[in-house]
Write a structure and sequence with these properties.
mainly alpha
Length: 228
Amino acid sequence: MNKLWNQIDLSWNWLTASAQWHGDDGIPHRLLQHLYYSGVSLLCAAVIGLAFGLLVGHTGRGGFAAVSVANIARAIPTFGLVLFIVVVDYSITPVLVALVALAVPPILVNTFEGIRGVDPDAKDAARGMGMTGWGVLWRAEVPMALPLILLGLRTSAIQVVATATIAAYPGFGGLGRYIIDGLARNDYQLVVGGTVLVVLLALIVQLVFAALRRLVVSPGLLGSARSS
C-alpha cells in the first residue's frame, strides 16, 4: 500500500511542477503532438474502415474477405511494423501508417457487422417507401447500426491513443517521449508521469465517445442495447 501511495505522490509532484507546463518538453506541447498523431491516424482509419465496412455490409459482397483481412491486420505487431518501415523511411510517416493499420480493423469489422445486422424488415420497409439503395443505407441502415459503428470508432480511438506512445521510440514526440526518456535515464517519476497522462487521455476519449453515443444514437436503440 505504501508503494502505491509513493507512486501516486511521485506522479502528482511531477504533474504539478511548473517546469512540466512550459517549453518544447512541457506537457501541453507533448499533448498536442500526441493528439496530432492520434487524430490524423484515426481520421485516416475512419475513412478507410467506414467506407469498406458500409460497402460490404450494404451490398453483402466481399464481407468474409474484408473481415479476414482486418483480423489478419490485427495480428501484425504495431511496434514491429514501425521498426520495419522506419528502416525504409525514417520519418513520422511509418508511425502514422502503423497506427492506421491498428485502427482500421475494429472500425471496419464493427461497421460491417452493424450494417449486416440491421433487421431485414426495416430495410424492406424503407424500400417500400420508395428509397433507393443509398437511401436505405443512409436513412435506415446507418442510424440503426450507429451503436456498433461508434463502438468500433471508440475501440480504435483508445487503442491509437495508447499506442501513439511508439512515436517517441524512433525519436519523435508525444506523451511517449516521457516514458522512453524516463526508461533511458532510469527516472521512475518520468515514466509514471507519462503513463498517467496517457491513461487520463484514454479515459477522456472514452467519456467523449460515451457522450457522443448519447447524443447521436436514437433513444430506442440505446434502450434495446441496455436490455440486450
